[in-house]
């Protein structure tokens, strides 16, 4: 019983973080956070360059690795698409409120954006 409460509180905290990080709240963000995360509606118009099948693969990868934050390169390698394609999908998901982003600073080079699914 306590673990269910902990899971519910963790989901609430993740949702709060996604809402507070968002510039604006969209309907797709609300739909995602309130339970339709795993399916991509065929009636939803996706922007040019975003295909529902590839989007489903990325969502599935996130759901299989819920605690992992991915760079665009890592997600691209996992799903089998290029880094730039993965970044396009990850940025779309960030805008929709499905993922949150953070900067990862290594010891050398530019910082990388890491994306994590909102639970």
From TrEMBL:
* InterPro entries membership: 2C-system_Tx_regulators (IPR051271), DpiA-like_HTH (IPR048714), WH-like_DNA-bd_sf (IPR036388), WH_DNA-bd_sf (IPR036390)
GO molecular function, a single term:
phosphorelay response regulator activity
Q: Which residues form the Transcriptional regulatory protein DpiA-like helix-turn-helix domain?
A: 54-116
Residue ranges of the TM segments = none
Q: What is this protein called?
A: Transcriptional regulator sensing dicarboxylates
Species for this entry: Pseudoalteromonas translucida (strain TAC 125)
- Lineage, broadest ranks: Bacteria, Pseudomonadati, Pseudomonadota, Gammaproteobacteria, Alteromonadales
């Amino acid at each position: 019983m306590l673990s269910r409460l902990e899971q519910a509180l963790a989901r609430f905290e993740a949702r709060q973080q996604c809402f507070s990080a968002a510039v604006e709240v969209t309907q797709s963000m609300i739909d995602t956070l309130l339970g339709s995360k795993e399916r991509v509606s065929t009636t939803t118009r996706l922007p040019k360059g975003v295909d529902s099948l590839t989007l489903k693969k990325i969502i599935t990868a996130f759901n299989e690795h819920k605690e992992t934050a991915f760079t665009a390169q890592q997600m691209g390698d996992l799903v089998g698409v290029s880094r730039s394609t993965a970044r396009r999908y990850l940025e779309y998901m960030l805008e929709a409120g499905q993922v949150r982003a953070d900067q990862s600073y290594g010891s050398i080079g530019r910082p990388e954006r890491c994306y994590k699914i909102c639970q």
